[in-house]
Specification:
130 residues; alpha+beta; OB fold (Dihydrolipoamide Acetyltransferase, E2P); six-stranded antiparallel sheet; three-stranded antiparallel sheet; 3 helices; globular
Length: 130
């Protein structure tokens, strides 16, 4: 499995990419999407809300289960990835195909930049799921 070095990870299987401008993208790892199976729906109703590290910011539904999504650091959800909207031609299964690219879930405004340093490295996360 692939765990890019430029991301940080949580033990709850979320990743975060620091955009370098006070914002970050958040998604789920390749391991998480493979465990969930075919993703059919993502529900995010927290856009505009400040969410504390470890609190739920949404849910992800797969054919066989529904799972909560946990915020990796304190931050404000400022955008939901419109590609994941099930209406029209959009497709939440993009998370299965490209979890670290087009399959990002939310964009957040970072509350404290130092929080990212406390997360797992790719090497740490690989050890966790191996």
């Amino acid at each position: 499995m692939n765990y890019p070095d430029n991301l940080k990870y949580t033990s709850d299987h979320e990743w975060i990419l620091d955009n370098g401008d006070g914002t970050a993208l958040v998604g789920i790892t390749e391991f998480a999407q493979s465990e969930l199976g075919d993703i059919v729906y993502v529900e995010i109703d927290t856009v505009g809300s400040k969410i504390a590290k470890g609190d739920v910011f949404g849910t992800i539904e797969a054919v066989k289960t529904t799972s909560e999504l946990f915020m990796p650091i304190d931050g404000e959800v400022i955008e939901f990835n419109a590609v994941l909207d099930e209406s029209g031609d959009d497709n939440p299964a993009i998370i299965n195909e490209d979890p670290y690219g087009q399959g990002w879930i939310v964009k957040i405004k970072i509350t404290d930049q130092k929080d990212i340093d406390s997360l797992l490295t790719a090497e740490d996360y690989t050890s966790l799921v191996s």
